[in-house]
């Protein structure tokens, strides 16, 4: 049985100094009109803003300087992440590369991959997508059927990935593929590959959402060549890396701050005239937010110590995304408004965006059912 622990973490003084620096940078971006908070989230794709973040040292913060990093702590990186999300900064272009793909390459990639890719990520010039989900397999990553077969100097990939966010505008995709036949151990025989996008044998098809937006994609590999130095880790050891990678994906502030801008707009819309019902609702949301922040910060502390808090991260993600989904529902009850994406009114636009995107929160990064199964197993309940 795995006992859950969320030990309190105190931020070091240099993290608080960094927080003020980041706030000043974001305030300048807001004042100039380059950021419109209620229209942005960590899914917003703005390469120019990413390059600014890279120039300021806000990407690849924990990586060694030899790879373009800045050798900061996980807690310093946490502060930057939190401030970016709280301000509604358009960090989506570099988000996946900075949060997980770069860390994966740093820990398990070849020296050639590290030298070629990590400095570009840290500079805010190289963007990644994650190729895990596949048709007909739901959230069961172990059911992956994309195949990788040996060829001279590398591998040939064949198969299809779906719900691949940003695949149409990134430079690389990390794909999970089967390099050995299925066996009794469902997690064996899987390997991760760094695939350069835009190649002739990589086909990307858009999956449009209900309001016509293009975030998701279907990615098809047809004898796509991947050189040996773009294999991540040992062949057949992909599952262990995927599960470790998900701790970075599931535990951060992005798993409870996706609708934070709507919460801010809701408080502004209610103003000083908020009745007791509204005050109780807002107080409960603020209390939940404070608790989630404490839990998430604790996981950042574990990552700083080199631990693998996979189950704690799963719990943060499950509770956090439920919180994110609750905010638009409460907002609709407290304020009479017609949600609209093009009305120009911050609360209406933030509410519209949240209503349209919030159903995905408990799917992306692992469905609620998968996470609760992991949590139950960790507690010895199954």
Automatic annotation (TrEMBL):
<dbReference type="InterPro" id="IPR009075">
    <property type="entry name" value="AcylCo_DH/oxidase_C"/>
</dbReference>
<keyword id="KW-0560">Oxidoreductase</keyword>
<dbReference type="InterPro" id="IPR052161">
    <property type="entry name" value="Mycobact_Acyl-CoA_DH"/>
</dbReference>
<feature type="domain" description="Acyl-CoA dehydrogenase/oxidase N-terminal">
    <location>
        <begin position="14"/>
        <end position="125"/>
    </location>
</feature>
<dbReference type="InterPro" id="IPR046373">
    <property type="entry name" value="Acyl-CoA_Oxase/DH_mid-dom_sf"/>
</dbReference>
<dbReference type="InterPro" id="IPR013786">
    <property type="entry name" value="AcylCoA_DH/ox_N"/>
</dbReference>
<dbReference type="Pfam" id="PF02770">
    <property type="entry name" value="Acyl-CoA_dh_M"/>
</dbReference>
<dbReference type="InterPro" id="IPR006089">
    <property type="entry name" value="Acyl-CoA_DH_CS"/>
</dbReference>
<dbReference type="InterPro" id="IPR006091">
    <property type="entry name" value="Acyl-CoA_Oxase/DH_mid-dom"/>
</dbReference>
<dbReference type="GO" id="GO:0005886">
    <property type="term" value="C:plasma membrane"/>
</dbReference>
<comment type="similarity">
    <text>Belongs to the acyl-CoA dehydrogenase family.</text>
</comment>
<dbReference type="InterPro" id="IPR037069">
    <property type="entry name" value="AcylCoA_DH/ox_N_sf"/>
</dbReference>
<dbReference type="Pfam" id="PF00441">
    <property type="entry name" value="Acyl-CoA_dh_1"/>
</dbReference>
<dbReference type="GO" id="GO:0003995">
    <property type="term" value="F:acyl-CoA dehydrogenase activity"/>
</dbReference>
<dbReference type="GO" id="GO:0050660">
    <property type="term" value="F:flavin adenine dinucleotide binding"/>
</dbReference>
<feature type="domain" description="Acyl-CoA dehydrogenase/oxidase C-terminal">
    <location>
        <begin position="279"/>
        <end position="379"/>
    </location>
</feature>
<dbReference type="Pfam" id="PF02771">
    <property type="entry name" value="Acyl-CoA_dh_N"/>
</dbReference>
<dbReference type="InterPro" id="IPR036250">
    <property type="entry name" value="AcylCo_DH-like_C"/>
</dbReference>
<keyword id="KW-0285">Flavoprotein</keyword>
<keyword id="KW-0274">FAD</keyword>
<protein>
    <submittedName>
        <fullName>Acyl-CoA dehydrogenase</fullName>
    </submittedName>
</protein>
<dbReference type="InterPro" id="IPR009100">
    <property type="entry name" value="AcylCoA_DH/oxidase_NM_dom_sf"/>
</dbReference>
<feature type="domain" description="Acyl-CoA oxidase/dehydrogenase middle">
    <location>
        <begin position="129"/>
        <end position="223"/>
    </location>
</feature>
């Amino acid at each position: 049985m795995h006992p859950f622990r969320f030990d309190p973490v105190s931020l070091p003084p240099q993290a608080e100094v960094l927080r003020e620096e980041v706030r000043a940078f974001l305030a300048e971006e807001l004042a100039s009109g380059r950021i419109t908070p209620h229209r942005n989230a960590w899914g917003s794709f703005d390469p120019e803003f990413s390059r600014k973040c890279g120039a300021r040292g806000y990407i690849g913060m924990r990586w060694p300087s030899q790879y373009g990093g800045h050798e900061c702590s996980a807690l310093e990186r946490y502060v930057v992440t939190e401030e970016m999300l709280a301000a509604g900064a358009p960090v989506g272009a570099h988000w996946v590369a900075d949060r997980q793909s770069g860390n994966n390459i740093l820990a398990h990639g070849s020296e050639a991959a590290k030298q070629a890719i990590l400095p570009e990520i840290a500079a805010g010039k190289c963007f990644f997508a994650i190729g895990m989900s596949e048709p007909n397999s739901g959230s069961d990553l172990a059911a992956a059927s994309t195949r990788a077969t040996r060829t001279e100097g590398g591998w040939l990939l064949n198969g299809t990935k779906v719900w691949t966010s940003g695949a149409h505008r990134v430079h690389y995709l990390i794909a999970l593929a089967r390099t050995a036949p299925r066996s009794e151990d469902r997690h064996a025989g899987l390997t991760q590959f760094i695939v350069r996008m835009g190649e002739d044998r990589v086909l990307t098809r858009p999956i449009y959402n209900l309001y016509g937006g293009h975030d998701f994609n279907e990615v098809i590999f047809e004898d796509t060549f991947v050189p040996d130095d773009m294999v991540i880790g040992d062949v057949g050891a992909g599952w262990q890396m995927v599960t470790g990678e998900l701790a970075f994906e599931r535990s951060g502030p992005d798993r409870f701050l996706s609708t934070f801008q709507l919460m801010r707009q809701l408080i502004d819309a209610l103003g000083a005239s908020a009745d007791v019902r509204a005050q109780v609702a807002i107080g409960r949301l603020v209390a939940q937010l404070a608790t989630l922040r404490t839990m998430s910060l604790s996981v950042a502390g574990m990552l700083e110590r080199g631990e693998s808090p996979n189950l704690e991260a799963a719990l943060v993600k499950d509770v956090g995304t439920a919180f994110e989904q609750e905010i638009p529902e409460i907002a609709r009850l407290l304020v009479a408004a017609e949600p609209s994406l093009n009305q120009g009114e911050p609360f209406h636009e933030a509410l519209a965006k949240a209503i349209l995107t919030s159903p995905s929160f408990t799917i992306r990064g692992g469905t609620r059912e998968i996470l609760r199964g992991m949590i139950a197993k960790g507690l010895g309940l199954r």
